[in-house]
Each structure stands twice: as structure tokens, then as C-alpha cells.
From TrEMBL:
Alphabetical list of Pfam families matching this protein: PQ-loop
InterPro entries from the UniProt entry: LAAT-1, PQ-loop_rpt
MF (Gene Ontology): L-lysine transmembrane transporter activity
Subcellular location: Membrane
Lineage of origin: Eukaryota, Metazoa, Chordata, Craniata, Vertebrata
Keywords: Membrane, Transmembrane, Transmembrane helix
Keyword Transmembrane: yes
Membrane topology annotation: Multi-pass membrane protein
Name this protein carries in UniProt: Lysosomal amino acid transporter 1 homolog
Regions that span the bilayer: 46-68, 80-103, 109-129, 141-164, 176-196, 217-241, 253-276
Major place of residence: membrane
GO CC annotation, single: lysosomal membrane
Family, similarity comment: Belongs to the laat-1 family.
């Protein structure tokens, strides 16, 4: 699941020669040029950027429903697989390293840092409720430790994008650019492997419990929308490419494998939600029918005693 669109490799090809340190883009879209430093001069490239932004926002919102579900349910350790959270965090961390090594745009670095923050929030919730539910005594210090941890990580992640972008621009030398870029794309493939691996622990957890209770389907639904729109943003721009389409696909292949592979696995997760929701409704209907019989049995037992 590529949590950010890797578009920076094509930015230089879309810009004309700089004058006084500023790119020339006479017929480009102003807001895209301002935000992404990318010259978009046709409808294909424009819709590619718009669909890519939709994909980005889907991923930004995907973890928030699960945070609320964990807060409401309070039994996140029973519903969520820690392997799922760990692989998700590892994938986002690899994506961040890939962003830095391939000199991605600042907005992409900020976005992937936000993903890491939401991952840490989910992991913190998981550990908090696991310790709380397994301990017999109430521990008020545990809540304060979680608040301090979340506050410290928030401050660190707010400072991190600025620190990375400053160091990235100052340390960008031409001699080591090729090896660094190859390392960045290797991190992209590693992130795709982590994203693909993240679904298997959760699929096994749901199968073992025969239930999806405690997990929010919106987490996976928004991820599916994000992966689908990401792939679409790559396909849409192909007719407008002036260069080699094969080279363009190869540059995005790592993220495409991750997005389409996770999209396929999320269909299996969706099937689990449908099947186990039906099982849950059958169980609740059986429970609702039991109290109607029990009082009659009790009355018969009382009459027999007399």
C-alpha cells in the first residue's frame, strides 16, 4: 500500500529551464505549480494530480475510524493484530526513508510523517488497552505515560519534516545521486513488501476469532479507495507522457505492486467482514430468543415445588 504518490522523479521533466531560480511554466496550472513545483499543461496530467490527492487524503483519513473504534470498544488487543500494526509502521518508515533518498517533495514528506504518527497512535492504543485489560489493579500512571508518549511523539514528528527537508536540500550532491536514488527505490520495494505482509496477520486473526468485531471496516475501505485511486492516477497520466512509458512504469513499479497487491488482499478482508457479520447477527438473534423461554421454565419449576 503506497501511502504517498511517488511523482517527484517526473517533476524535472515537466519544468522548463529555470530563470533566476524559478521554473518557467507558461501554460501550467498555478496551484499545482505552487504546491508541487510541477508543470501541468494538459488535462491528463491535471486529473492525475487530482486523483493522486484524493488517494493521499483517503490514506490520511483511513486510520482515524479505527482510533475511534478502539476508544469506543476498549478491547483493541482482541480485535487487531499487532503484526498488522507493526508491518504498517515498518512500511511507512521505509516510505519515509525512500522519500528522503529520492528527494521527494516536502508535502509528501509531511504526509508520510503524518502516517507514521497515526501508526504510533494505533500502536500506543493497542499497548495501552492490552496492559490495562490484563492488569487487575487500576494504574492511573499508565494513562499519563501514554499522554506523555503521544505528546512527545507529536512534537518530534512536527519538527522532523522541517529537519529532513533542510538537510535534504543542503546535502543533495550530484556525485552520489544515482546510488542514493537506487537505495530510495529499494526502500520503496521494501515498503511494498511490508504493506503486503501487513494484511496476513489481520486475516489470520479474523479467521481464528471467526469475527471482525472491534475493527473498523472504514480503515480498510478508505485504504482500498486510496490504493485504487493511486493506481488510477498512474494510468491516467500515461497518454500524456512525452518520454518512455516503460521507464515511467518501472519508476513506479514498487508502489504499484504494493497498491494493487494490498487492494486484492483487502477484498479478502471485506469478505471476512461480510461473512462474520452474518455469523454475529445469527448469534445475537439466538441470544435474544433465549430469555423468552427461561421465565416459563422458572414458573414451571416453582409450580412443581408446590
Amino acid at each position: 500500500m503506497p501511502r504517498f504518490p511517488g511523482r517527484t522523479a517526473d517533476v524535472a521533466a515537466n519544468l522548463t529551464s529555470p530563470v533566476l531560480g524559478r521554473p518557467l511554466c507558461a501554460n501550467g496550472t498555478p496551484w499545482i505549480l505552487y504546491l508541487f513545483e510541477e508543470c501541468v499543461e494538459n488535462v491528463w496530467e491535471y486529473w492525475s494530480v487530482v486523483i493522486g490527492l484524493i488517494s493521499m487524503f483517503c490514506f490520511l483519513l483511513s486510520t482515524l475510524p479505527q482510533v475511534y473504534e478502539a476508544y469506543r470498544n476498549g478491547k483493541v488487543e482482541e480485535a487487531m493484530s499487532f503484526g498488522f500494526l507493526l508491518f504498517l509502521f515498518s512500511g511507512d518508515l521505509s516510505s519515509l526513508i525512500g522519500c528522503v533518498l529520492t528527494s521527494q517533495l516536502p508535502i509528501q514528506i509531511v504526509t508520510v510523517v503524518f502516517y507514521i504518527f497515526t501508526d504510533l497512535l494505533l500502536i500506543s492504543q493497542f499497548l495501552y488497552y492490552k496492559i490495562k485489560n490484563n492488569s487487575c489493579k487500576k494504574r492511573p500512571t499508565l494513562k499519563w505515560l501514554c499522554f506523555l508518549w503521544c505528546g512527545a511523539s507529536t512534537v518530534a514528528l512536527l519538527i522532523l519534516p522541517k529537519f529532513i527537508t533542510d538537510n535534504n536540500t543542503s546535502a543533495n550532491t550530484q556525485s552520489a545521486s544515482n546510488s542514493v536514488e537506487i537505495s530510495g527505490y529499494a526502500c520503496g520495494y521494501l515498503a511494498s513488501i511490508f504493506y503486503l505482509s501487513s494484511r496476513f496477520p489481520q486475516l489470520y486473526k479474523n479467521f481464528k476469532r471467526q469475527s471482525t468485531e472491534g475493527t473498523s471496516y472504514m480503515l480498510f475501505a478508505l485504504a482500498m479507495m486510496g490504493n485504487g485511486t493511486y493506481g488510477l492516477s498512474i494510468i491516467v497520466v500515461l497518454p500524456a507522457l512525452a518520454g518512455s512509458k516503460q521507464t515511467f512504469i518501472l519508476k513506479h513499479l514498487a508502489w504499484l505492486i504494493g497498491s494493487l497487491g494490498v487492494l486484492l488482499l483487502d477484498f479478502f478482508v471485506t469478505a471476512q467482514f461480510i461473512i462474520y457479520r452474518k455469523n454475529r447477527s445469527d448469534k445475537t438473534s439466538k441470544k435474544m430468543n433465549v430469555p423468552e423461554v427461561e421465565p416459563l421454565l422458572c414458573e414451571e419449576e416453582e409450580l412443581s415445588t408446590f
